[in-house]
Every structure is written in structure tokens, then in C-alpha cells.
Amino acid sequence: MSHLPPPGPPVNLTAALASFDEVWSPRIVTRVNDYDVRIAKTLGDHVWHVHDDTDEFFLVVEGRFDVSLRDVSGAESTVVLHQGDVFVVPRGTEHRPSSTGGAILMFEPRGTSSTGDRHEGEIPGHVDSTTGHALPPA
Questions:
Q1: What is the spatial distance between Cα 16 and Cα 28, in angstroms, rounded to a whole number?
Q2: For residues 46-62, average pLDDT
Q3: Pick from 64, 124, 117: nearest CA to 95
Q4: More confident residue, 136 or 86
Q5: What pairing do the DSSP bridges indicate for beta strands 94-109 and 86-89?
Q6: How far apart are the first and last CA of the chain?
Q7: pTM
Q8: What's the CATH class of domain 20-124?
């Protein structure tokens, strides 16, 4: 007989996104094994950054979401994503998300910083360097 804890309550993403206003400030909606499932509102430019040891998964929940990438030679390209699109930034790839407005869902190992293991320049005031925040109480 298993003594596992009961599952948590369901989380409605629309209600969760409506519970906060900050952009680039991820909220943890649930956990899967050692991964956080995070949501964030997006607007403007994030910071160029790298996750050395983990891929980064994005699902666009609403709006438009662009991911600029730099290869090892420094050449840049941009992937344009819309609602329903998914994209994975491979570990070790320098990238900078940006958005004209929207929301994303991310799968990341627990403790992963939203500004990566390394980032370029100062972190803008509208970007929250965090490992995720709890959702406000319902």
C-alpha cells in the first residue's frame, strides 16, 4: 500500500495569470518530479542569458513570444512564437526572450534562475531574477 501524499488541487491557468500583474516574474503553478511548472506574463525585452545545465521549455499561452538566439560565432537569429506554440532552448544556448505582450508556461528544474547561470549586462528593472514565486492564495 502506497503512502504517497494526495494530489494538489487543479490550477486554472487563466485564473492564475489573473492573480498577478508583474511581467517576467514567474509563478510556480505546480511541480512534476523535480521540475517547476511556471507561468509568467511577458512584455518587452528580457535579458540575454544562458542556462548551462538545462534546456528551457516554453509554451505560449497567449500573445506573441520571440526568442532571440546566439550561436557560438555570435550570429543572432529569432524564433517567433504565437499562442499554442512550443519551443525548447537547448542548454548552453545564449538567448533573450521578448514579447509584445502575452503569457508563457515553462518547465524548468526546481531552483533554475529566470536570468540563467550567466547573463549579459545589468538586469532591467522590469525583469525579476528569481527561481519562481508561489501563486497568491486563491
A1: 10
A2: 97
A3: 117
A4: 86
A5: unpaired
A6: 33
A7: 0.92
A8: mainly beta
84 in Cβ contact with 38 (< 8 Å): no
* Dihedral sign, Cα of residue 41, residue 27, residue 33, residue 98: positive
Q: What is the mean pLDDT of residues 21-33?
A: 96
Helix spans in the chain (H)? 13-18
Amino acid 1: pLDDT: 55
Instruction: Give me the pLDDT at residue 76, please.
Output: 97
Burial of 20 (0-12, 13-18, 19+ CB in 10 A): middle
What is each CA distance from 116 to 13, 20, 26, 73, 121, in whole angstroms? 24, 23, 13, 20, 13
Q: Tell me the three cell numbers of residue 123.
A: 538586469
